[in-house]
Amino acid sequence: MNCFRHERTAATGLCAVCQKAICRECVARETPRLICTTCAAGNAVLGFEYTSSATIGGWPLVHICTGVDVVTMRPKVARGVIAIGNVAVGGVAVGGLACGLLAVGGLSVGILAALGGAALGFGFSAGGLAVGSVAVGGAAMGFTYAIGGLALGPAVINGLHCDAAAREFVLRWLSAASLPPSCQ
Predict the structure, then answer these.
(1) SS (H, E, C) 148-184
(2) For the chain, how big is the Rg over CA atoms in Å?
(3) Could you give the count of Cα atoms lying within 13 Å of 4 in the half-sphere of its Cβ?
(4) How far apart are CA 112 and CA 105, in angstroms?
(5) pLDDT bucket at 43, cuts 50 / 70 / 90
(6) What H or E segment, with its residue span, contains residue 88?
(7) Quick check: 44 pLDDT over 60?
(8) What is this structure's pTM?
(9) Is residue 104 a contact partner of residue 94, using CB atoms and an 8 Å limit?
(10) C-alpha distance from residue 181 to each of 48, 118, 125, 138, 184 (Å)
(11) Backbone angles phi, psi at 33, to 5 degrees
């Protein structure tokens, strides 16, 4: 087998990204896997990436990023004021794993609010598993208020119990119709 670029030179292996045969001269990186010079230069795309030209504090206003880094084969991370991707870190972070002031995702960690399958936050958290100052979810653990099927905290609303403080908190934000039968 010969190199895809140098047809008369024997190949030393296959590029891990494009799977083309490459010779010693065309190898850009050997570890952790063989990568050709074309793929290492960034011409190979395994995913999608958009970065806005506008920045705030050195962070792009919008960064959308999916896929993997072609050299390390690790997931790419979206970092920006608004970050959207498989892994997202930013002011508003949306992704499978999201960390930020406001985080929305499968696993979300938020300072002000976290929404997701598993939501961990210092402020408001909502999700299947929610942990935060105010936690709403199937399993909710709140530092102040907890509302859910399994609720743990100083003031809770669950299927069997309704604390007066938690009831007042819910009535402040929602109507009485939103309260479960245990609070009527």
Answers:
(1) EEEEECCEEECCCCECHHHHHHHHHHCCHHHCCHHHC
(2) 25
(3) 13
(4) 14
(5) low
(6) strand 77-121
(7) no
(8) 0.74
(9) yes
(10) 48, 26, 23, 17, 5
(11) -150, 160
